[in-house]
Amino acid sequence: MRLIYPVAIFAAGIALAASLGLAQQASPAGPYQVLKKVKVGGEGGFDYIFADVEGRRLYVPRSGPMGRLTVYGLDTLEPVGEIANVSCGGAIVDPVSHHGFSTTKPLSMWDTNTLTVIKTIEVQGRPDGMMFDPYNERVWVLSHVAPNATVIDAKDGSVVATVDLGGAPEQAVSDGKGTIYVNIEDKSNIAVVDAKTLKVTAHYDLSSQATYATGLAFDAKNHILFSYLRQPTSVAVILNAEDGKIITTLPTGNGVDTVAFNPHTMEAISTDGIGGSITVIKENSPTSFAVEQTLQTMRGARTMALDTKTNRVLTMTGEFGPTPPPPDEVRAGQTPNLNARNGPMIPGSFTLLMVGK
Q: In 109, 174, 181, 313, which residue has its Cα 20 to 30 A from 138's Cα atom?
């Protein structure tokens, strides 16, 4: 995932219908609704959003000349504080050590209680996405250029190792028992990694279904992966995590980046930045899945965080100026550029959204 500045992305087409299992057309009617929309303003780009469920805080990194890490109450969306001069695209928290990490370069490690930087950590590549692995209390820092992953000990901030994932990683998930799965964007596969040896043990190829892999969610109980791909149409590929066998596919919104699986509701949830919507996929059983709801949010809201205590989804975006003419490849009828940019963000329009039942 790349740092988001105000973007408007052109749709790639109509999504695929499900190939196996139970599928149905998305409906705007459903249990979810936008519960709160707070215009917090502030300049700078944005990318990942992170919910510290135990600490009840929402971390919203901002990038650019006025980069900083902004912090809000997870229940209220009221401002709590910020760490100035930390221009970053992502942040993550270890609930055990109460250490936070931001994808600056060098990496920033900070105290979640005081919101002060403890140390900086030299890393290679281009830090982008992050994942905390509770199995051995490590932070995985992902990069589209080598090294693909840098593994950090969350307790003291030391670099454990770097890992070659075989391509450009997007979202990663842990099963909490020693296995990590990573969506590989440019190879359209899922890398399976042994968290003990830090070696890739398999790649699950998804290219027969679609390409450009982004978001990845995991149902730990039933060992099900939900991999989201964008081209030529946006689709969620649902597969067995143990052997990579594809179970079914379901349509999603266009421009999905981060996603999550809620084990309390048995739902995979994704945010779509092109049309500005959330797609909820219901897991009725390990072999039966359906698009439960498509909820309109705001254009550009393509990353999300899940609060598993309240079952609420947090996302963010802004309001934008006029859309520029389509890129040449769109005018020529070719595959659209998913990173085509919109006009500038309207000053003061940056907004946090809370979605729930």
A: 313
In a domain? residue 188: yes
DSSP string, 95-114: TTTTEEEE--SSEEEEETTT
Q: What pTM does this model have?
A: 0.88
Question: Which residues of the chain are modeled with pLDDT < 50?
Answer: 2-27, 329-340
Question: Domain range for residue 106?
Answer: 33-356
Q: In this structure, is residue 305 part of a structural domain?
A: yes
Closest CA to 188 of 237, 251, 249, 223: 237
Q: How far is CA 16 from CA 12, 209, 230, 253, in A?
A: 12, 9, 11, 11
Tokens at 135, concatenated: 């199995």
Question: 331 — phi, psi (to 5°)?
Answer: -65, -30
Instruction: Establish whether the linkage from the previous residue to 347 is cis, with ω within 30° of 0.
Output: no
pLDDT in tens, 195-253: 999 999 999 999 999 999 999 999 999 999 999 999 999 999 999 999 999 999 999 99
CATH no. for residue 118? Answer: 2.130.10.10
Distance CA 227, CA 327 (A): 28
Query: What does the alpha-carbon distance between residue 320 and residue 294 come to, in Å, rounded to a whole number?
Result: 23
Is 28 within the bounds of a domain?
no
Does residue 2 form part of some domain?
A: no
Residue 54: HSE in the Cβ half-sphere, 13 Å Cα cutoff:
10
Residue whose tokens read 């042994």: 194
Q: What does each C-alpha distance from 215 to 40, 164, 229, 329 come to in angstroms?
A: 26, 19, 8, 25
